[in-house]
Amino acid sequence: MYNLVYNIARTLDSPPNNKPFWRFLHVCFVFFSSLIGKAYFGRLKKKYPSQSVVLFEQSSIGDILLTNRYYNNFKETENLQNEIILFDKRLKRVVSLFPYSNPVFISPFIIYSLSQYQLIAHDEIVPYNTWLFFNQEYLYSFKLNAPPENLINCEIGYDFPSGKTALLSPYEKTLSFSNGEKLPEEFWAELARELSRNGYNVITNCAGTEEEPPVDSTKQVFPRFEEIVSFCNKCDCVISMRSGFADFSALSDKCKLAVLYPDDEWLKKFSIKKLWQKNDCLEIVYRNQSISSIIEQIKAYIFEEEK
Hints:
It is built from 14 helices and ten strands. The chain has about 300 residues and is α/β, with parallel strands linked by helices. Helix 4 links the parallel strand 2 (about 85-90) and strand 3. The mean pLDDT is about 85.
């Protein structure tokens, strides 16, 4: 039931047109949601009367990883001493990898309702995503928290072949490509062939489904969240779309990382170099570039120490 209401809420946040009926319906639903948020917040304060309430609205894997790395700075900035953090319950598996002291998992609709209530009662709820994504230049000056040890040294269930390994990660779930422009399949296939010709064993990070098949002539791998960093440590290079996987890969200090962005706006907002203070990675904006041009840049970056 909550999922249905949540989907309706998100639809009304971006109504199909700007007619008065849709605007009125949207206002009514926001008002209804904020009342639910207020009621839920009241129950929270009865259970946690002396603790601050932090609301994490995002629902992507990379956001969870990123917020953990900056959380100490966030607490200091917001003067938080004793807080609970509200997360979307769909993120429980990923959140459990990090040392949050008081995580509380709730439905996506309650997250949405609390975010609407927070717009009215902004002094009662601290929104973490707003602090993170609307103050990025301020954010870049902070020192990153050390990643959890369980992410850096994790046993992985994959036998790597001898020789050099290149990992391709061509899929993403949250990035919106402007004007529907995407990297074509032949780009990944040609890149895999180039890497193979230069002595690399090429593997693809994918689910192996019809929507996420491995790149032609490559083997499929699908590491668990907790395995990704250790997995990348075993690879010589990772070439990834800008995604949550790229965020995890940025924690590896043993592989070269090339990240592909659809346009300059995405690079400006979500630069791996800036957010992760990882100056040695390669960032390429795909738009208006030929396949051969992109591949040549990747080859020059990966092979530069082999010359």
